[in-house]
Automatic annotation (TrEMBL):
<dbReference type="GO" id="GO:0003735">
    <property type="term" value="F:structural constituent of ribosome"/>
</dbReference>
<comment type="function">
    <text>Binds directly to 16S ribosomal RNA.</text>
</comment>
<keyword id="KW-0689">Ribosomal protein</keyword>
<dbReference type="InterPro" id="IPR002583">
    <property type="entry name" value="Ribosomal_bS20"/>
</dbReference>
<dbReference type="Pfam" id="PF01649">
    <property type="entry name" value="Ribosomal_S20p"/>
</dbReference>
<dbReference type="GO" id="GO:0015935">
    <property type="term" value="C:small ribosomal subunit"/>
</dbReference>
<comment type="similarity">
    <text>Belongs to the bacterial ribosomal protein bS20 family.</text>
</comment>
<keyword id="KW-0694">RNA-binding</keyword>
<dbReference type="InterPro" id="IPR036510">
    <property type="entry name" value="Ribosomal_bS20_sf"/>
</dbReference>
<keyword id="KW-0699">rRNA-binding</keyword>
<dbReference type="GO" id="GO:0070181">
    <property type="term" value="F:small ribosomal subunit rRNA binding"/>
</dbReference>
<keyword id="KW-0687">Ribonucleoprotein</keyword>
<protein>
    <recommendedName>
        <fullName>Small ribosomal subunit protein bS20</fullName>
    </recommendedName>
</protein>
<dbReference type="GO" id="GO:0006412">
    <property type="term" value="P:translation"/>
</dbReference>
Length: 87
């Protein structure tokens, strides 16, 4: 267990950051699920609109450090590829 005041503060801070980062990742997942649902339904206009909303969310996740740059790029690329195959 932490003994020093600084170590105790780090534990408190890390718990708070974990909550915030978890919420950010959850938000990104929700946006991605909206695109996947539209793709599964075969609704191209809705999927296009949802994909346009996903891109800045993924970029924000990268900027905030909750997603790796390549992970975000891969997710967006795969969703775009699935959307173009829908035509």
């Amino acid at each position: 267990m932490a003994n020093t005041p600084q170590a105790k503060k780090r534990i408190r801070r890390n718990q708070r950051r974990a909550e915030i980062n978890g919420a950010r990742v959850s938000r990104i997942r929700t946006f991605v699920k909206k695109v996947e649902a539209a793709l599964a339904a075969g609704d191209k206009p809705a999927a296009t609109e949802a994909l346009a909303a996903v891109q800045p969310e993924l970029a924000r996740g990268v900027a905030r450090g909750v997603l790796h740059r390549n992970t975000a790029s891969r997710k967006f690329s795969r969703l775009t590829k699935r959307l173009s195959a829908l035509a």
